[in-house]
Amino acid sequence: MSCQGKKTNTIKSKKSNPPPITKEAIPKKKEPNFLLNDANVMEFFLDYDQKHKEDRVRITTDFGTIDVKLFEATKFHRSNFIYLTKKQYFNDTQFYRVIQNFVIQGGNSDDRKTLIKRRKIGKYLLPNDYDKGFKHDRGMLSMPSKNIENPYKKASPFEFFIVQQQGGAHHLDGDYTIFGKVIRGMDVVDTIAAVATDATDWPLQNVFIRKIEILK
User: Fold this and answer.
1) pLDDT tens, residue by residue, 114-169
2) Under CATH, which architecture does the 36-214 domain have?
3) Which among 10, 26, 81, 104 could disulfide-bond with 40, CB atoms 3.0 to 4.6 Å apart, if both were Cys?
4) Burial of residue 158, with CB atoms counted within 10 A of its CB: 0-12 exposed, 13-18 middle, 19 or more buried
5) Element (H, E) at 48
6) Cα 209 to Cα 188: distance, rounded to the nearest angstrom
7) pTM, entire model
């Protein structure tokens, strides 16, 4: 997501362009140098979904905790979130885009350590899976899409946003995949949404995601 420019009620990803899809063989998942990419990600998460059914996570922030239930219906996105959580990717990332009465968006950072963690996981996008009947109601967890050369609005897997807007942000419906909802901690979401930000919606004082852990 781009964090530069004027405020806008759209969701954008900071993710760089993905590598082109190739016909390379899918690496064995137990190889130490295994990396996810656009060629192997679908098969990987189909298999991962069968073995990892966790669906509740806790996001620990500087302002308190947010508990989230992930939806089974969006299996690629649920599995991706669980996979990254187990890889401890989200630990010490930030809510880097905050717009009061719209969304708080997290999963990235200006720390070089975050970029290194991404490189060790891989470079890939997830399919848009927006037709499961979910709406961008208040408290919904959704995934931004890379907005450059991405006509199918494939999702940026390392980032997520929570709808804070009263009454929901339904103009986003059909463009982004909703894959979970907040079941406890919307007061924390509201507190984060109210912090002071600069012209690019980045909080003046960094709001860290200290860790995300699996509850169930």
Assistant:
1) 999 999 999 999 988 888 899 999 999 999 875 545 445 678 899 999 999 999 99
2) Beta Barrel (2.40)
3) 26
4) buried
5) helix 41-51
6) 12
7) 0.82
